[in-house]
Structures are given as C-alpha cells and as structure tokens.
Amino acid sequence: MTLSLSRPELILKLIVEQYLSDGQPVSSKALADNVQLAVSSATVRNTMMALEQQGLIRSPHTSAGRIPTTAGIRLFIDKMLQLQPLSGFWINELQRKITPQLPISLLCQQAGQLLTNLTGFVAIVSAPKAEGRIVRQIDLVRLASDRLLLVVIDEDGDILHRVLHCESAIDNSTLSKVLCLLNAALGGGGQWQDGIERLGTIVRSETGLCQQLLQKVLGQLSLDELQQHQPLIFGQHQLLLTPEYQQNPALQQVMEMLERPDGLIRLLQSLTLDDKPKLLLGKESGFIELANVSLIAQRYQSQPQRFIALLGPRRMNYARLIPLVEACARQLNLNLNRRQASP
C-alpha cells in the first residue's frame, strides 16, 4: 500500500525511519539527497524548522541533525507505519514452540522466552493462573527412608513435584497418615488456596514427624501458589546490553520496576481490555520509569484476562515487532482454546 503524504509528513517519516534504524540525528543535507523528496536543502531546513515548532522533532545537541520526539514517533506509527508480514522463520518458531500439548504454565513460559529470543527485548506474560485454581490430585512417593516426592496436579495439567528431605526416617504409618490428611485438605477437586488454609489448620493440630512433614508440604504449596500468580518476565538481562541502556542511566529505573512489577502489571491490564494490539511510547505510560522505553501489548484471553507484552527501547522496529506480538497472542489463544475443547 502506497501512502499519500504531504511534504512535511514525508520528511517526518524519513527522519523517524532513519532514527529507528540507527539512532543518529538526521541532517537536512541527508534528507535533501533522498530521491523521494527532490527538493532543495533550504526547503528541507524550513520544513524541519516547522516540524520542530510543532514538537515533532528536536535537536539532541548543537549539531544540525534532528531526532523525532515521542509525539513525532506517535504520529508516524498512527499514520505512516506499514506493518510487515512475519518471516517464515518466525512463523515456524511460533508454531513449533507454542503447542497445545503443553500445560498452561509451560505454554506461557515458552511464549515469553520465545518472544525474548526472537527480539532481544523484555517479554512480559500475565500470571499463568487465575483465582480459583483447582487441585486434581496430590500424592507422596517414597524415594528413600528420609526423602519423599511431593506430586500435585492441578486442573490444567500443571504438575508440581518437589523432593522433601526429612530429618529422620519416615515409617509407613506416618506416611499413610500424612497422605490421608493431605487428601482431606486438598483432594476432591477443591480450590488450591482453600486447601492451603485447611492444611494450615491441620498442621497446628498435629505433632512430631507428622507435623514436620505437613509443614514442609504446606511451604511448597504456598510457594507454588505465589509463583503461579506472579507475572512471567523474560530477558531483563537483554535490556542491560542495549546501547541505550549503557548511555542512559535512567533506564536503570526500568530494571527496578521489573523487579517490583505490580504497577506495570496494572498498567498492562488496563491497556489490554480488547483484542487489539496496544503501543505505549515513553511517557505515554504515565510512569517516569518508562519514559525511555516502549511497550507493545496484546490480550490473548479475555476470561480470565491474560496478556503478553514486549518492552524495549523507544527505537524499536515497530513494523516487525507489532505483528510478532499479535501473532504470539493469537498462537497462545488458539492453543488455549484447543486445550479447552479437548475431551
């Protein structure tokens, strides 16, 4: 599709495209030499001056070159950006790595890790589990006289398995009693969190080795419940390697926000209320910590609401990355629907 642009729009488009490509200020001479313009350097300079007065470009220092502002990049994305089709390699990777056979937690992990691997940026996936998680099965398997394997399976097929090390040998009678109490607390298709609360009550009424074992199980169940309700974040180290991070200490605030992501998750939840891809540039997010980065986000499930997002420097290849995040969300949604439709 060919865009019909005015001269100022075309000049802005060329500035943004060059900046997104190499991060360098664009001079009027470089623009005047562009065959798409066919105008004099004076005309380009006058147009650039007008664009600067409109707040769409700015001079980063005393050089003659200009870079786009957030407003300039936003206008480019909203009016001039032409999205590119996914490469065959990316399509194959999405289909190969995000498959319906995987439990939901692993499906989300695969999607986030793949997005980071393909882009080199930070991927954020909403918590794999929603409230009301159901326990389908719980078991204790003897590995040795003083070691047990805890196995818990939830309704999505996700399996928790943890080795429990005990201070003394566990006789069969104690093992049978503990397993009976665990099934009383968590068995029968009850909710995970409710089961944890019931198990906590049971622990307080027991003594000795039986109580010790139940406390170990309670600790593992509580930790897993906490982890399952935390967002998945991949590729933080990738941000550390970007030239922008090396040159801009303000990006260190992003790392701190990723370590305590509650505010970021609320932002992404409010952003992904429909099935359209969303893009936030810098200060548009309302968070000073995100002033130097961009977020591409897409909802992939409405009930419960789940999203996937990509965070990186403002200088992203939006034409390629927006379709990638969309495709990743579609693949997740497709496979979640296949799982739900399976008998």
Automatic annotation (TrEMBL):
Residues 11-71 form the Winged helix-turn-helix transcription repressor HrcA DNA-binding domain. The keyword Ligase does not apply. One of its GO terms (biological process) is negative regulation of DNA-templated transcription. It comes from the Bacteria. The gene is hrcA. NCBIfam families: hrcA (TIGR00331). Belongs to the HrcA family. Negative regulator of class I heat shock genes (grpE-dnaK-dnaJ and groELS operons). Prevents heat-shock induction of these operons. GO terms for molecular function: DNA binding. InterPro entries: GAF-like_dom_sf (IPR029016), HrcA (IPR002571), HrcA_C (IPR021153), WH-like_DNA-bd_sf (IPR036388), WH_DNA-bd_sf (IPR036390), WHTH_HrcA_DNA-bd (IPR005104), WHTH_transcript_rep_HrcA_IDD (IPR023120). It holds the Pfam family HrcA. Residues 109-322 form the Heat-inducible transcription repressor HrcA C-terminal domain. Keywords: Repressor, Stress response, Transcription, Transcription regulation. It comes from Rheinheimera lutimaris. This is Heat-inducible transcription repressor HrcA.
